[in-house]
Amino acid sequence: MEKLSYPEMQRVLMDELRLMHYPVAVKYFFDQAELDALKAKGGYYLPAKALTFCQAELGARMEGIPVLMGKEQLGCGNAKCVFGWKDIDEAEIKGHLKYVRDMEQAERFVRTKPRLQKELLAVLVSPLADAPFAPDVVHFYCDNMQAYHLVVDWMAARDIHPLRPNMTMNSAACGGNVHAFNSGEANVFLACSGSYNAGKTERGEINVAIPGADMPLVLERLLARKQATGGASVTRLGHPFPGADICKNCPLIVFKKVEAPAAD
């Protein structure tokens, strides 16, 4: 398959999977020259006030704008720990007591969250179509069957089965994407309490994070299936809707095409 551009990838994903939100391209900046190049070009947005990481993603997935966050723009201790911008201190551990049995368990759980291993300078989130750099991770906010199609295609493309998700008690959006980056594998995870309310996650949405380098493979699988069967659906081959809610082999929900009557 001819390599698709990022705008073409976004168009295919939005059209074929019926996504409600733009796929979010996540770029971690560890190189000062890369970050300086972005700043020299301009065109990005900065939060007017310090936000959580999942709130910054609202700009990308809903408003369609690229948002740059440095340490000073990030107002979330959980995300700062995940990004390596804050040590895991007693206050951070105590902040997790509401989830766990005791202080010992809180510390153990916090210390097992994904963390970036290199020194992060900034993170950029943008709609995939507008990604100015190759994304490290592409983050999807989607429903059950959209998530299913994405991860099935990823597993087939990478020849990895089963998928082994990583979900923590907190730090869903920030930690979920960092795990995909650290592991080089896709991740599926639920909203945490913070990303549900602060990040405005709907009750039924599921998070999928796919390494940016794997996106061409995922698109190739999706488009090859469409070409072979006539539609992107895995659940009903040949159908255009991903996950049509029709019982398999149901004799009632069947549609037959009516051709034009033959001319006399």
Key terms for this structure?
264 residues, alpha+beta, 10 helices, 6 strands
Q: Mind explaining what this structure looks like?
A:
The protein has 264 residues and is α+β, with helices and mostly antiparallel strands. 38% of the residues lie in helices and 11% in strands. The chain has 10 helices and 6 strands. It has helices at 6-17, 32-41, 53-63, 77-82, 90-94, 103-111, 144-158, 172-183, 193-197, 215-229, and strands at residues 24-29, 67-69, 122-127, 137-142, 187-189, 206-211. The chain has a 6-stranded antiparallel sheet with strand order 2-3-1-4-6-5, sandwiched between helices. Helix 1 crosses helix 10 (215-229) and helix 7 (144-158) packs across helix 10 (215-229). It is globular.
H-E order? HEHHEHHHEEHHEHEH
| Mean pLDDT reading | 94
User: What gross morphology would you assign?
Assistant: globular
Strand order of the largest sheet: 2-3-1-4-6-5
- Find the structural class using helix and strand composition: alpha+beta
Number of strands: 6
Q: How much of the polypeptide forms β-strand, as a percent range?
A: 5-15%
Helix content: 25-40%
